[in-house]
Amino acid sequence: MPSLSLSLTTPFLLLVFCLIGLLLAADDVCPGGSHLRAPDTRLNLPTGSVVGNCPTEAIPLVMAEDDKYGNKMVISLTPRLYDYVLNNVREHEILRQLREETAISQIQVSPDQAQLLAMLVEILGAERCIEVGVYTGYSSLAVALVLPESGRLVACDKDSNSLEVAKRYYDLAGVSHKVTVKHGLAAESLMSMIQNGEESSYDFAFLDADKAMYQEYFELLLRLVRVGGVIVIDNVLWHGWVADPMVDEARTINIRNFNKKLMDDKRVSISMVSIGDGMTICRKR
Ligand SMILES: C[S@@+](CC[C@H](N)C(=O)[O-])C[C@H]1O[C@@H](n2cnc3c(N)ncnc32)[C@H](O)[C@@H]1O
């Protein structure tokens, strides 16, 4: 009898195991029905590697090299993922036109950066803003567009040709009345604002001009911005070179030193964000 019950139950058990196996496998099937491999989280994997359990073109994950962060992984942009980010930016029609006219220069902030600046201005409820390094006005227009009618943006740049383009776009967007353009060396413009009694009267500042002067601009902006106000500094990752000890080019060293000083600067709270070429958001204490 025992041998009869064994011979009846064995095929039944096999069938159950097969069904369980099929169910488990079905959970792991990728959209293309492809085979599964263990996840691999290194950066720059070749085409055909996997994310989670599914093949992909490249793995957008980076692991901290420094052991003290416990192999913390963060998402990294790929061209496809960056397109996705850009497709999720709400860009004003006039900003789009300006970007398309001047994009060749590659020196203006990206649409996702401009949107972040505008968002910070809105969160702050900022009314009085400064921009150091206007170029043709992409970032300043993004800020001016979200300022209230009573708001004011002081836009500083030394290049008159660029400022003419910026002014054309402020007009087109109907925000010229909110923007005061200061043509000249930015340090002199900021100093004259201080001498004019405007210390601690601004809510928001964006710094995006000559890197050699960052520390000097920062000191002047810190005087002009009120406690609780925000200063955003662009290009703090400087093409990624700040983290490369082999790069000893002057501007990289300047930004590296600036970042180091800011890290120790108790006058501000800071947050370095890896958006665009890197931005640090500082809140005056
Ligand atoms: C990176 S661009 C600014 C881009 C702009 N924020 C945007 O997103 O469209 C830098 C600008 O800083 C200006 N600049 C450089 N040195 C300056 C200085 N010493 N004083 C005033 N402007 C300066 C340049 O003329 C240039 O237009």
From TrEMBL:
Print the keywords alphabetically: Methyltransferase, S-adenosyl-L-methionine, Signal, Transferase
- Pfam families in alphabetical order: Methyltransf_3 (PF01596)
Please indicate if the UniProt record lists GTP-binding as a keyword. Answer: no
The residue range of the signal peptide is 1-25
Q: Which domain of life is it from?
A: Eukaryota
Q: Known CDD domains for this protein?
A: AdoMet_MTases (cd02440)
Q: Which PROSITE patterns match?
A: SAM_OMT_I
Q: Which cofactor does it need?
A: a divalent metal cation
Entries under InterPro entries matching the protein: Cation-dep_OMT (IPR050362), SAM-dependent_MTases_sf (IPR029063), SAM_O-MeTrfase (IPR002935)
Hey, which family's this protein in?
Belongs to the class I-like SAM-binding methyltransferase superfamily. Cation-dependent O-methyltransferase family.
List the protein's name: Caffeoyl-CoA O-methyltransferase
